[in-house]
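thread: overnight batch results

M.L. [08:02]
morning all. the overnight job finished for the chain we discussed friday. pasting input first so we're all looking at the same thing
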Amino acid sequence: QVQLVESGGGLVQAGGSLRLSCAASGLIFTVYTMSWYRQAPGSQRELVASITRTDFTNYADSVKGRFTISRDNAKNTVFLQMNGLKPEDTAVYLCNAQYVGMNYWGQGTQVTVSS
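M.L. [08:03]
and the structure it wrote out:
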Protein backbone atom coordinates (compact mmCIF):
# COMPACT_ATOMS: atom_id res chain seq x y z
CA GLN A 1 0.00 0.00 0.00
CA VAL A 2 1.00 3.63 -0.35
CA GLN A 3 3.02 5.08 2.50
CA LEU A 4 4.29 8.61 3.03
CA VAL A 5 6.65 8.97 5.97
CA GLU A 6 7.71 12.41 7.11
CA SER A 7 10.78 13.21 9.17
CA GLY A 8 12.92 16.17 10.17
CA GLY A 9 10.56 18.13 12.37
CA GLY A 10 11.52 19.46 15.77
CA LEU A 11 11.96 22.49 17.99
CA VAL A 12 13.96 25.43 16.65
CA GLN A 13 14.46 29.05 17.61
CA ALA A 14 13.11 31.85 15.44
CA GLY A 15 15.45 32.49 12.55
CA GLY A 16 16.63 28.90 12.46
CA SER A 17 16.32 26.24 9.80
CA LEU A 18 14.89 22.75 9.40
CA ARG A 19 14.79 20.31 6.52
CA LEU A 20 11.77 18.06 6.25
CA SER A 21 11.80 14.82 4.27
CA CYS A 22 8.96 12.66 3.01
CA ALA A 23 9.80 9.16 1.84
CA ALA A 24 7.17 7.62 -0.43
CA SER A 25 6.58 3.97 -1.21
CA GLY A 26 3.94 1.92 -2.97
CA LEU A 27 3.37 4.39 -5.78
CA ILE A 28 4.95 5.53 -9.04
CA PHE A 29 6.59 8.53 -7.44
CA THR A 30 7.67 10.27 -10.64
CA VAL A 31 4.11 10.97 -11.85
CA TYR A 32 2.82 12.46 -8.63
CA THR A 33 2.60 16.10 -7.66
CA MET A 34 4.11 16.23 -4.18
CA SER A 35 3.11 18.84 -1.67
CA TRP A 36 3.66 19.97 1.87
CA TYR A 37 0.71 21.21 3.89
CA ARG A 38 0.60 22.43 7.46
CA GLN A 39 -2.02 22.63 10.14
CA ALA A 40 -1.76 24.65 13.32
CA PRO A 41 -4.08 24.08 16.29
CA GLY A 42 -7.47 25.64 15.62
CA SER A 43 -6.58 26.46 12.03
CA GLN A 44 -7.43 24.98 8.67
CA ARG A 45 -4.92 22.90 6.79
CA GLU A 46 -3.06 25.08 4.31
CA LEU A 47 -0.84 24.41 1.32
CA VAL A 48 2.77 25.38 1.97
CA ALA A 49 4.50 24.28 -1.25
CA SER A 50 4.08 21.87 -4.13
CA ILE A 51 6.25 20.43 -6.89
CA THR A 52 4.95 18.75 -10.03
CA ARG A 53 6.37 15.86 -12.03
CA THR A 54 8.10 18.45 -14.24
CA ASP A 55 9.56 20.30 -11.21
CA PHE A 56 7.19 23.24 -11.42
CA THR A 57 6.98 24.69 -7.92
CA ASN A 58 4.36 26.73 -6.12
CA TYR A 59 4.55 28.40 -2.71
CA ALA A 60 2.23 30.03 -0.24
CA ASP A 61 2.89 33.76 -0.06
CA SER A 62 3.78 33.45 3.61
CA VAL A 63 6.79 31.21 2.88
CA LYS A 64 8.08 32.57 -0.44
CA GLY A 65 11.77 33.34 -0.24
CA ARG A 66 12.20 31.30 2.95
CA PHE A 67 11.14 27.75 2.05
CA THR A 68 12.28 25.57 -0.85
CA ILE A 69 10.62 22.37 -2.03
CA SER A 70 12.57 19.79 -4.02
CA ARG A 71 12.31 16.14 -4.99
CA ASP A 72 14.69 13.25 -5.56
CA ASN A 73 12.96 10.82 -7.90
CA ALA A 74 15.74 8.25 -7.51
CA LYS A 75 14.99 8.09 -3.77
CA ASN A 76 11.21 8.62 -3.95
CA THR A 77 11.64 11.51 -1.55
CA VAL A 78 10.43 15.10 -1.38
CA PHE A 79 12.09 17.72 0.79
CA LEU A 80 11.15 21.04 2.32
CA GLN A 81 14.05 23.28 3.29
CA MET A 82 12.80 25.85 5.75
CA ASN A 83 14.96 28.88 6.53
CA GLY A 84 14.23 32.00 8.51
CA LEU A 85 11.63 30.19 10.58
CA LYS A 86 9.08 32.26 12.47
CA PRO A 87 6.84 31.36 15.43
CA GLU A 88 3.86 31.50 13.07
CA ASP A 89 5.37 28.59 11.12
CA THR A 90 4.62 26.33 14.09
CA ALA A 91 2.35 23.52 12.90
CA VAL A 92 2.15 19.87 11.97
CA TYR A 93 3.60 19.53 8.48
CA LEU A 94 2.03 16.88 6.28
CA CYS A 95 3.24 15.35 3.04
CA ASN A 96 0.74 14.86 0.21
CA ALA A 97 0.92 12.93 -3.05
CA GLN A 98 -1.63 13.62 -5.76
CA TYR A 99 -2.16 12.20 -9.25
CA VAL A 100 -5.43 12.27 -11.18
CA GLY A 101 -8.00 10.92 -8.72
CA MET A 102 -5.51 9.59 -6.21
CA ASN A 103 -4.62 11.55 -3.10
CA TYR A 104 -2.47 10.29 -0.23
CA TRP A 105 -1.35 11.79 3.08
CA GLY A 106 1.41 11.15 5.56
CA GLN A 107 0.96 11.24 9.32
CA GLY A 108 2.78 14.54 9.73
CA THR A 109 5.76 15.88 11.60
CA GLN A 110 5.64 18.60 14.25
CA VAL A 111 7.55 21.82 13.73
CA THR A 112 7.73 24.20 16.67
CA VAL A 113 9.43 27.58 16.41
CA SER A 114 10.16 29.41 19.64
CA SER A 115 10.44 33.18 19.84
